[in-house]
Amino acid sequence: MRLLIIEDDQSVAELERDYLTLNGGFDCDLCGDGVEGLQKALAEDYALIIVDVMLPGLSGFEICRRVREVKDVPLIIISALADDIDKVRGLGLGADDYMTKPFSPSELVARVKGHIQRYERLVGSEKKARPEILKIRGLEIDREARRVWVNGAEKAMTGKEYDLLLFLAEHPDVVFSKDKLFDHVWGMDAIGDVSTVTVHIKHIRDKIEAGMEPVQYIETVWGVGYRFRG
User: Fold this and answer.
1) Which of 87, 115, 126, 164 lies in disulfide reach of 74, CB 3.0 to 4.6 Å?
2) C-beta of residue 40 within 8 angstroms of C-beta of residue 28
3) 67 burial level (CB within 10 Å; 0-12, 13-18, 19+)
4) How far apart are CA 80 and CA 82, in angstroms?
């Protein structure tokens, strides 16, 4: 399993990595900058993220907030800030745990393993309850085969068109800005800009809503973004 450690103190980061590798068998990516760390967290798949609060470029609190907007991944904040208000803030932003420096490396390993096991149990139960084919008023999306049908007719989708449609369909009645959709589907390190979201939405509509009045699936919320009708 791959973990991401965002920590600007190289000696601390290497100590955490060594303990997690030797005692947990984890592969750890290290990053010492907040902006770069957020980019990696959003662009790549990690089993868990460990983030320090005081970082150059972007704080650990902000990283936690931004990650939680688009991803559900275990996240542990590590900080020298021991006040309850800081702990409450970190947990309120979506962190699963808050550890105060100094701490025992073996305790970190135990907490990492515990959060990953808890996450795997939750995801496993969700997968059992979630059908592989998502059906919404004549639209069928096969999660496993990555295929789409409308009223029984298959519609060819590019990879990004499919990813964008599935993300919207899995979050019905939630309004997403173009920025958030771009971050989720393309990743923050992608080449391009948010205008590509508008282009892809148009292509998806042409394929799944051609001739339909009124709009059946993807609605434009003017000045805000897009929403999938539940």
Assistant:
1) 115
2) no
3) buried
4) 6
CA end-to-end span of the chain: 35
Domains and CATH numbers, the chain: 2-128 (3.40.50.2300), 133-228 (1.10.10.10)
73 DSSP assignment: -
Contact yes or no for 39/14 (Cβ under 8 A): no
Question: How far is residue 87's CA from residue 85's CA, in Å, rounded to a whole number?
Answer: 5
The number of angstroms, rounded, from the C-alpha of 145 to the middle of its chain's C-alpha atoms is: 22
Helices and strands in the chain: count of H runs, count of E runs: 8, 12
74 cis-preceded (ω within 30 degrees of 0): no
Tokens 């592989």 locate to: 132
H runs (alpha helix) in 49-158: 60-70, 84-92, 105-129
Residue 54 has what DSSP assignment?
S
Cβ pair 161, 205 in contact under 8 A: no
170's CB contacts (< 8 A; 6+ apart) are: 134
Side chain identity at 223, as an amino acid letter? G
pLDDT in tens, the chain (230 residues): 899 999 999 999 999 999 999 988 899 999 999 999 999 998 888 999 999 999 999 999 999 999 988 788 899 999 888 788 888 888 888 888 999 888 888 899 999 999 888 888 776 655 555 568 899 989 999 988 889 999 999 999 898 899 999 999 989 999 999 988 988 887 755 555 778 899 999 999 999 988 777 778 999 999 899 999 97
